[in-house]
Structure formats: C-alpha cells, structure tokens
Design brief:
It comes from Streptomyces achromogenes. InterPro entries: Class_I_gatase-like (IPR029062), Peptidase_C26 (IPR011697), PuuD-like (IPR044668). The protein is α/β, with parallel strands linked by helices. It has a single domain, classed as 3-Layer(aba) Sandwich (Rossmann fold), CATH 3.40.50. Helices cover 28% and strands 26% of the residues. It has a nine-stranded mixed sheet, with helices on both faces. Helix 4 crosses helix 5. The longest helix has 17 residues, at 104-120.
C-alpha cells in the first residue's frame, strides 16, 4: 500500500529552511584521500535539531555581487568558527606570533558573506571567528592576542552576562549563560552600528548585534554548538536562527 503522501497532493511536508554554512578548508581528513572542505558535526547537528537544512557553502574567489547572488537562494546563514583573520584585514601592520591558520581566500569569502547576508537581510548567526568577521567586515578591529595562556579563553567554560532586551537574551532565554569558549583574540574596536550584547567577567566582548540591520542577526564569541545537545539555552541560538529563516521566507 502506498503512503498517503504519495497519492494525496494535499498531504505535504514543508521543506526545512536552508541554512548556508561557509565551509572550512582542511588539509587532511581520515575518510578522504584529498584535502577537504568541512564543517563541525556538532554545528551541523545543532542546525538540524532546530529544524534547519544545513548546507556547506564552497569558499570561492568571487566579488560581493556574486556572493550575494549565491546567498539569495538560502533562507539563513551561519558564520562558523575557524582560524584567525589576517591582521591586515583590520589595519594591523604586523602579525602577532600567535596568529594561526590564516587563509586569504577564506578571509575574503567570509567577509563578503557577512556583508552580503546583512545587506540582504538574511537571518545570520555568527560564532567565534564569525563574530570577529562581522566586526571587521563593518570596520571594527581585533586584539590579536589576549595576553598569553593565562588570559586567553581556550578550553574555558565561564559565565557570560547577556544584555537585557537583546535578541541574544530572547534566544537563550536568560540574562546569564555558561559559555564554552575557544579563542585567543577578541574585539578591540567595535564597528560602528554594532551593539555589545554580552560580556565575560574580564570585559571581553562575547556578543554583538546590529540594531539597525535589515534582518535577524546575533553573534557570539563562544561556541554554542559545544553544549547545545544538552543545554537548551545554547540550542536556543540555533532554534532562533532557523525560526527567523522560516519566518523570512
């Protein structure tokens, strides 16, 4: 017997909102014979749990108009973590010795994705490097190193205070969250138009939003995907992204 959906055109399943996630370059993977383009499984699964359809986006050498045309077919964008942005992207003359995994193509593509998503009003969630990309894309700068191992936020879970009334607060449902962090850089100068929506106890910017933006957008310096499978507050960020993507169709 055939399933009703196969014969009854009135029985339909709404497609999942399509969420673009710029891929990261990997020199090697255990399952493939070649270098790969990847995204963290925890990140992809968090989008899937939220009801979204995660789709890796190939980083290509294109101008912003072409990048915007590619994004226009998606319902939302997630800018993930990754290596450091090249310091010259935010006006630094020299690179600190701790700067790592810089890739000029990745930088150029991510910056164009950030600007295009905001210009198009696509729902955008930016995570860790993603937050830094948005800040730099809009004219802000980064502190290249937070001061060595005793001050950086690598392998650290710490409380973060969330600004009342922000999109971030609505997404996580709380004024304070425990954030899983992995970064040695942070926002130095916040880009014009961006508002700080979260801070760590040491003053590090942990959240950014754009109140004048065309669409839903929030950015966090931590990695919500690390604990989203067991922490509803962290999963709430992905839920909010997918909800905004669905509503914006």
């Amino acid at each position: 017997m055939r399933h009703p959906a196969a014969t009854d055109p009135a029985v339909t399943t709404a497609p999942r909102p399509l969420v673009a996630i710029p891929a990261r370059f990997s020199a090697t993977t255990s399952a493939l014979r070649y270098a790969a383009e990847v995204n963290a499984r925890a990140l992809v699964e968090a989008v899937w749990r939220a009801g979204g359809e995660p789709a890796g986006l190939h980083p290509a050498d294109q101008d912003e108009r072409d990048v915007a045309a590619r994004l226009a077919r998606f319902d939302g964008v997630l800018l993930p973590g990754g290596g450091d942005l090249a310091p010259h992207r935010y006006g630094a003359a020299d690179a600190h010795h701790s700067v790592y995994d810089v890739d000029e193509l990745q930088d150029a593509f991510d910056l164009r994705v950030a600007r295009a998503a905001l210009d198009l009003g696509l729902p955008l969630l930016a995570i860790c490097r993603g937050l830094q990309v948005v800040n730099v894309a809009l004219g802000g700068s980064l502190e290249q190193d937070m001061g060595g191992p005793e001050r950086e936020h690598r392998h650290v879970v710490h409380p973060v205070a969330v600004r009342s009334g922000s999109l971030l607060e609505r997404a996580v449902g709380a004024g304070k969250v425990d954030a899983s962090c992995y970064h040695h850089q942070r926002v130095e100068r916040t880009a014009e138009g961006l508002t700080v929506t979260a801070r760590a106890a040491d003053g590090t910017v942990e959240g950014l939003e754009l109140p004048s933006g065309k669409g839903w957008f929030t950015a966090v310096q931590w990695h919500p995907e690390d604990t989203a499978h067991e922490d509803p507050a962290q999963q709430g960020l992905f839920d909010a992204l997918v909800r905004a993507a669905r509503d914006g169709r």
